[in-house]
Structures are given as C-alpha cells and as structure tokens.
Amino acid sequence: MVRTGLRISVLVYLTMLLVLPVGIIFVRTFENGIGPVIDALSTAAAMHAFQITVVVSFYAVLANTLFGVTAAILLVRYRFPGKRILNALIDLPLAVSPVIVGLALVLVYGRTTGTGKALAGIGINIIFSIPGMVMATIFVCIPLVVRAVAPVLEEIGDDQEQAASTLGASTYQTFRRITLPSIRGALAYGIVLALARSLGEYGAIAVVSGRLVGRTQTVTLFVQERYQNFDQQAAYAAALVLVLSAVVALLVSRTLRPKEITR
Amino acid sequence: MSIKALNVNKLFGDFVALDDVTVEIPTGSLTALLGPSGGGKSTLLRVIAGLEQPDSGTVEIEGKVATRLPAQQRGVGFVFQHYAAFKHLSVYRNVAFGLEIRKRPKAEIKKRVTELLELVHLENFAHRYPSQLSGGQRQRMALARALAVEPQVLLLDEPFGALDAQVRKELRAWLRHLHEQVNVTTVFVTHDQEEAMEVADSIVVMANGKVEQIGSPDALYDTPENDFVMGFLGPVTKLAGELVRPHDIELFAAPETDTVEATVLRVTRLGFEVRVDLKVNGDDIWAQVTRGTAEQFGLEPGLTVYVRRAPHRAAIPVATP
Q1: Would you call B132 an interface residue with chain A, using a CB distance cutoff of 8 Å?
Q2: B283-290 sheet: strands from edge to edge
Q3: Which residues of A touch B74 (CB under 8 A)?
Q4: Alpha carbon of residue A23 to chain centroid
Q5: Is B8 left (phi over 0), alpha (psi -120 to 50) or beta?
Q6: Tell me: the pLDDT tens digits for B109-165?
C-alpha cells in the first residue's frame, strides 16, 4: 500500500513538473505539422545559434574534462595545503546563481575594467564574445566532471598505479594505461552531464554575451528572444531540439553509468 | 649484499614508522620482515621499493644508491597484499605490462609471458580477467607480473594476508619452491611468525619502527636477544624469574638440582601434546609435555611435581618493574 502510494505521488510530481511541460512543447512544436518546424530551424539566425551553442559547449566541455580529471586526481591522490579550500571551491558553482557568475565575469573582464582594456589592447575580447561565454559555461559546469570521477578514483585506490610504477611505467604511462581505463565510465558520465549542462546554460551566458543576435546568440538565448518577439513556432522548435539533445545525452549517460558500478 | 638500508628514518606526522633502521639482505636470500602491525615492516619494504621516501638514511640495491630513484627505475618487483591486479586487463596483459612498457618485441613478450604463466600454473587462464580468478590465482598472477621484468629484488607486502588459511598454506610452500627455481633476492612482510619460520631462511624482527633482531629462524627461536623476540617467535611462560618456552620445562617426581615445587592445576590434552597448568610460588605458569610424559607422571589436578628449565634452552630474565 505504502509503496503504491509513494509510486503514485512520485509519478504525479514528475508529471506536473517534467512530463507535462515537455509534452506541451512537443505538441505545440508540431501543431502545424513538420514543415514550419523545419522552416523555423533553418533560418540563418537559428542555424547560427546552434553553431554558437556547439562551439561554446565544445570548448567548455573540453576544458572541464581536462580540469576535472586533474582536479579529481589532485584531490584524491595528493595531500597539500589548501586542499579543503579547493574542494569547497569546486562546489561553489552549484551554490552561486549563474547570473551572478556572468556579472562577476563582466566586472573582471568588461571593456571598462583594467583587465578588459589590457586584453582588448592585445586584441582579445572576453565579454560580448565567445571567450567570455566559454568561461561562463566552464564555470557553471566545474563540479560535474570532478564529482563524477573523484569517487571512482577513491574506490579503485592507488595500488594499481603503484604496481604500474614498480613495473617501470612513467607517471604519464600509468595515467594512460591504468588510471584512465579505470575511470573511463565515470569520466564519460561526467562529460555527458557537463555537455547537457553546457547546452542548456542560460543565465551566465545571457549576461556575458550581450545577446547579440547573429553574433553571440546561443540556442537558449534564441528561444527566449524568439518567444518575446511572438515567434512561438521558432521558440518551441529550438526548445524541442534542446530538450531532445539533453534526453539523448542522459540516455547515453545511463548506459555508461551501470557498467561502472558493476565493475 | 643485494639490499642495504642504512639508518633509515621515516615519520608519518608524529608517528615514528622507521627509527634508525639498518638492514642488509644478502643476494639470493629469502628474507621475512616479521613483526606486529604498525611495527614499520611494510614501510621499510615500501621505502626499499621507492613507493615511500625516507626522511633520512640511504637505500642501496645491488650496490647502487637508490634512495632518490623513483620506483620505476629501481628494478624491483613488488607484490601487494590486495594483488593490485589491473582489472581492465586480461591475465596475459597483466603479466605482459612491464614488458610492454619496455617496448620488447611481441614475440619475446609472448614467450616470456607464456613461461611465467606456466611457472605460476595459470597457463589456462591467460584470457580471463582478474575478476574471474580466485584470490590465490590473482596473487600468483601478481607474482608472475612482478617477475616478468626480471627484477633484481622481489618484494612482497603481506602477500598471503588476504587469503584464507588453506590457500595460504599452499602458497607458502609454493613461494619457497618458486624461490628455489628463480632464485631472485626476495623479501616478504608478514605478521605471522609461523609463516616467517616456515618460508624464510632469514628473519628480520621489527617492532615500533626498530629492528629487534636479525637471524635465521632457528637462531631467533633458540637464542632470542630480548623478551619481545622470544615472545613473538613462540609461546612463552614465566619460571623462576625467566621467560622460557613451555616445552622447555622439565618435570620431575622428586626434587632435583634447580627444581622448584609446583602444583598441577589442570591437564588439557591437545592430541599428542598435553598442556599442564601449574602453580609455582603463587604464579600461574604452563608447561607443554608429551602424552607419554603426562601418563608417566600420572598428571592430574592437585599432584605435586618439581620443575625446572631444561639446561641450555632459551631464557630471558624477566624485567623487574
């Protein structure tokens, strides 16, 4: 009885919050058939927005993968002063609103600040351009790879790595041949999560990008801008693409996750 | 000397793991580092392997100073208590690992790995993964893996510690046999004195980060230098202000030279051996006698006998507090 009750309440909860809104998007998108959807998604602005999202997500995920693995190894395998602070900093993006992250980046790298001017002097623009958007996305995704990889590193211990070093493997060879294969599943899971998060990032991007249509507009910004301009067809279609890519990413991550646990 | 550790010190925070330890291990020997847990024996082994850096002191391997060499350049084979099997690699690839790192030709690797798998009786398991092996098989794989790179010394950290009693016994005999076959200088850590006595030809007894005594199993058993070594290597009891071995206590029906009067408290038969609990001058002690002796004296509670330590047997004066 209790179990049935719990099951129903969880289902109702998820339906209200998740299934219904996403379902409505789906229905609205295809209200007038598939033709208008394709038209809406193949406009120059939409294509450009997808391109920007892919580029920003790619660099953000790449940077977070490298940083995430390094930080996880550092946190699990080494003892050093400031370790607890680093550990706390990694979770900071979960606590701080992305809008504030964006604002902070503007405050540091904005065109009126010292740093911003200095960088502009050598031809690098951070704010209102791709680098700032990548930085903002990196920031909000920081914990995802670290927190996926660190527990697995902890669990496998350092016996295998030590064994490899006594057998003559260098630090790099040990990482490449022993550590990396052992964390592969968890790493892939973290990357997928980071990717899903990057694709959907809005708040921080909205602040640092300046929302320049056709220049710094990502898909999420495109959805919002189209919606406000009463172009609901384009807004729904782009939103649906985002939802579908997130669902695909999560499905992929589900197939990766159980393997890691049973191993 | 194959391995020399000279005046090695190591602290973990406030804990003294190694306190001015000096040990020399001759080439080709099979040496046990024996002692209670926390005594520093594993730390010494890890310092020799280069997995741990000493705070001071030097380590020499085959005449070369290795103190600051990283583990990968020391030419040691190391076997871990929990096998440290490479879980994502097959048994074959595990054993081949060191050779692959050294970029040996494929044919040579194949030949060598096949030989080693035969040596450790795993030739039919080459394509299995470690998770499909028993504990004993994993440990034999780990040994083959360590031997593959032809190490100058083979170091084993509690190699049988995680195995059940039966497998443990088998592997002990097998390690002894293996050492005769490959004859590489071997050092293994154990806290089991029986294991050390059975397998090793030389034992280093360690406690509290210090070396207590070094010698052959017989020498340690028969002429222990202090009460710790005496107590750790075998059973002891107290007689006339000395620590003695219970089987070195002689029984007499009437007073003899150096004997003291004792009252039998209890007689416990353990197969061929008989344990006799005695009261001597108000102290409880025990003696281990054969069944024949027990029958000869007609030992039973309340009987008065006369006891002394058998001449020339190990004894350590009991420190008076």
Answers
A1: no
A2: B249-252, B304-309, B260-270, B273-280, B283-290
A3: 166
A4: 23
A5: beta
A6: 999 999 999 988 999 999 999 999 998 899 999 999 999 999 999 999 998 887 888
C-alpha–C-alpha distance, residues B106 and B108, integer Å: 5
Q: Which of B76, B86, B148 sits opposite A178 (nearest CB)?
A: B86
The model's pLDDT over A104-141, given as tens digits with 9 standing for 90+, comes to: 999 999 888 888 888 888 888 888 999 999 999 999 99
Hey, what are B319's tokens? 């420190």
pTM here? 0.82
- Ordered structural domains, chain A, with CATH: 34-262 (1.10.3720.10)
Mark which residues 203-262 of B lie under 8 Å from A by CB: none
Buried b or exposed e, range B117-147, using 16+ CB within 10 angstroms:
bebbebeebbeebbeebebbbbbbbbbbbbb
Closest chain A residue to the Cα of B156, Cα to Cα: A163
Instruction: Give the helix, strand, coil percentages of chain B, each rounded to 5.
Output: 35, 35, 35
Burial class (CB in 10 A: 0-12, 13-18, 19+), B234: middle
